[in-house]
Structure formats: C-alpha cells, structure tokens
Amino acid sequence: MTDIMPLDRQLCFSLYSASLAMTQLYKPLLEPLGLTYPQYLIMLILWEKDGVSLKDIGCRLGQKSGALTPVLKRLEQDGLVKRVRDEKDERALNISLTEKGEALRQPASKVAPCVAEACGMSFPELIDLKAKLEGLRKNLLDSQK
Predict the structure, then answer these.
(1) Domain assignments of the chain as residue spans, ordered by start
(2) What gap in Å lies between CA 83 and CA 72, rounded to an integer?
(3) Where are the alpha helices (DSSP H) in the chain?
(4) Which of 32, 49, 57, 68 is most exposed by smallest CB count within 10 Å?
(5) Mean pLDDT in residue range 114-127
(6) The pTM is what?
(7) CA 121 centroid distance within chain
C-alpha cells in the first residue's frame, strides 16, 4: 500500500488541468484577434489603463519582466503596443496602446461572455469561484514568504 494520494485526488492536478482547459478554450476565441493568451492578458491590462510600466504588468500577471519581453516585442511588431523608455528612469519601460491596439478592444469584448458560457456556471457561481481562487493564490504566495 502506498501513502501517496492518487493523481485524480490531487488539488494541484485539478487546478492544472482546469487551467489547461481554460487556455485551450481561449485559443479559437483569440485567433481572429491575432492574439495568444499571454498577449490577451497584457492587452486586458492596457485596455483597463493605458500607459503602464513593464514592472506593473509583471506584478499584475505574477511574471518577471524577462518572461514578458518576448510577448511585448511581438505585440509591438504586430503594431498593437509601443514600448518607450521612461524619461525619468531610463531603466524603466512603459507600455502603451497604439490605435490598432485600441481598435481591438471592441472585438475582444466578445471573448469573456463566450468563456463564461462555456464554464456552465451561473454568474454568482463564477464570481464565487473567482474569489476562492484569488484567496487560494494569496494564501499560496503568503506561505512562500
């Protein structure tokens, strides 16, 4: 007899497989916009507030700047964002939308309702799940300090 819990009873696997399913759901929804899921997350931040520092984007996404740089370079190559050095601190990089990037906001607004529908939950259930996941994330991050 083993004292290791089976895979299908592991919380980590449930979270991992749900995350994979979620990102797979986004792929065909984002394809017409020409965005990948990581690009979409950055664009959501910029549509919320334009002109954000790379450091702030990294904090919001829980990512290091180095991991975001290739994603931002691609967004810049596609003409969706501008990367500009901060005038006060040359080491800091500010990211802002171009007109083309701003124009994607409206078509992108159709993505979230499709995702919500695919989840098969009521709006209050989705809000409750989101709050629980945020609490879980906070607890996990706090436990690493």
Answers:
(1) 11-109
(2) 8
(3) 11-30, 37-48, 54-61, 65-77, 99-103, 105-108, 111-119, 123-143
(4) 49
(5) 94
(6) 0.89
(7) 21
